């Protein structure tokens, strides 16, 4: 009898899976760790600048969010999963506060506003929020017409052509484990084609969707180092 992992049997079918880890992951990890101290120093510098009135309030909270995002990756690639989870939670909270401040009429530099608007048009922070199960914040940080929000509202999801992220969302909506697993494989292969400078050691998009898929009862293989969130 063949052993089953996810929805596929161990054997010829398993050849479709990419390797657990690649040399690109190790190379990117080394680059990230070399700059790790800078991220912690930037966090301290941001706090000092804000306390001394040297930085706009909206920009401060946006930069804090981005800083926590980088620190989360630092912790993730060191295997510090609890610390990573805490940083991701802070990342989404700071971005939600950034959006709230803008909505309350707080001023911000034009570049900061553009940055926020670009994030709001995507589902990036929605996936981040899914990862830490912060459902309340999702409508504040994600386009309400996005497939992600429609899926969470149990509405019909329009699937984008050849987009593994949308395919995963669609699979959750349909509760289709096989479709989700195939879309995740496609996403991992896509990441591993990136050059080293843009390689994702931690794919928070997929990690959020993996957690949501599990909550919806889907069963699939996800033993890939870029989405290793089993202990979080």
Lay out the secondary structure.
Blueprint: E1 4-5, E2 8-9, H1 23-34, H2 36-51, H3 57-77, H4 81-103, H5 110-121, H6 124-131, H7 138-141, H8 147-152, H9 164-174, H10 177-191, H11 204-215
Antiparallel strand pairs: 1-2
Helix pairs in contact: 2-3, 3-4, 4-6, 6-11, 9-10, 9-11
How many distinct folded domains?
Answer: 1
Major sheet strand order: 1-2
Largest sheet: 2 strands, antiparallel
Shape: globular
- Helix-strand makeup class: mainly alpha
Question: Termini, distance in Å?
Answer: 33 Å
The helix content is 55-70%
Strand content: under 5%
What's the gyration radius in Å? 19 Å
From N to C, what is the helix and strand string?
Answer: EEHHHHHHHHHHH
Average pLDDT, all residues:
89
Could you please describe the fold and organization of this structure?
The chain is mainly α. The chain has one domain (16-227). It has 11 helices and 2 strands, in the order ββααααααααααα. Strands 1-2 form a two-stranded antiparallel ribbon. A hairpin with a 2-residue loop joins strand 1 and strand 2 (8-9). Helix 3 runs antiparallel to helix 4 (81-103), helix 9 packs antiparallel against helix 10 (177-191) and helix 9 (164-174) runs parallel beside helix 11 (204-215). The radius of gyration is 19 Å and the shape is globular. The two termini are 33 Å apart. The relative contact order is 0.13. The model is unreliable at 1-15 (pLDDT under 50).
């Amino acid at each position: 009898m063949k052993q089953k992992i996810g929805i596929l049997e161990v054997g010829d079918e398993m050849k479709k899976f990419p390797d657990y880890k690649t040399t690109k992951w190790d190379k990117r990890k080394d680059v990230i760790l070399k700059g790790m101290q800078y991220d912690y120093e930037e966090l301290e510098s941001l706090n000092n600048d804000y306390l001394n009135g040297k930085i706009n309030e909206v920009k401060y909270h946006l930069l804090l969010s981005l800083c926590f995002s980088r620190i989360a990756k630092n912790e993730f690639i060191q295997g510090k999963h609890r610390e990573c989870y805490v940083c991701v939670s802070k990342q989404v909270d700071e971005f939600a506060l950034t959006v709230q401040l803008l909505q309350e009429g707080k001023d911000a530099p034009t570049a900061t506003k553009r940055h926020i608007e670009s994030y709001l048009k995507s589902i990036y922070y929605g996936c981040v929020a899914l990862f830490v199960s912060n459902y309340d914040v999702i409508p504040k940080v994600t386009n309400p017409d996005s497939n992600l929000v429609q899926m969470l509202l149990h509405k019909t999801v329009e699937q984008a052509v050849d987009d593994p992220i949308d395919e995963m969302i669609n699979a959750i909506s349909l509760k289709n484990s096989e479709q989700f697993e195939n879309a995740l494989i496609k996403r991992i292969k896509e990441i591993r084609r990136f050059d080293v400078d843009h390689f994702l050691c931690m794919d928070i998009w997929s990690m959020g969707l993996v957690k949501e898929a599990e909550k919806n009862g889907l069963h699939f293989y996800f033993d890939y180092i870029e989405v290793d969130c089993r202990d979080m």
